[in-house]
Design a protein that fits this description.
Strand content: 5-15%
Order of helices and strands: EEEEEHHHHH
Shape: flat
């Protein structure tokens, strides 16, 4: 209940929860029992979500980096506050043990003050990518110095 998950849930978010497409029953791999249902979005609703996400991105990139960093820090705080509940949800949805579920939450950013230190390390790396093939293999031509 603290996560706002109900027996029936709308499946898309574009500033508000939406979904008027087909209903999907979600089952846990632990025992196959139904967790809840999710109302898929229609093609038109999907386009609205993408449009709203693009508008949010255009605004987000105008926000000064220190302010963005503070918002990321606050998000990390909220993830840490809900680590147990979110970990239980991952356990239920994915069939992982509880510690792994909470670990997944921690990896999303709930385990560090902000992504800024990680970003600084990433930006210090020298990356040179050249790929002449028609396929995109993982990490082809990337050098970390």
């Amino acid at each position: 209940a603290s996560l706002g998950i109900e027996e029936h849930n709308l499946g898309g978010f574009g500033g508000e929860w939406i979904g008027s497409g087909p209903e999907l029953a979600v089952a846990t791999p632990i025992d196959g029992s139904q967790i809840a249902t999710v109302q898929w979005v229609t093609e038109e609703e999907y386009d609205t979500i993408v449009s709203n996400a693009q508008a949010a991105y255009l605004h987000w990139r105008t926000v000064p980096p220190p302010q963005r960093g503070e918002l990321v820090r606050l998000l990390g705080n909220r993830l840490r506050e809900l680590k147990s509940e979110l970990g239980a949800l991952v356990t239920l949805e994915m069939g992982k043990i509880r510690a792994e579920g909470e670990g997944e939450v921690q990896e999303t950013g709930g385990g560090r003050e902000s992504g800024s230190d990680t970003w600084k390390v990433y930006m210090r790396r020298q990356t040179n990518t050249v790929n002449w093939s028609t396929e995109l293999p993982l990490a082809q031509g990337i050098e970390f110095g």
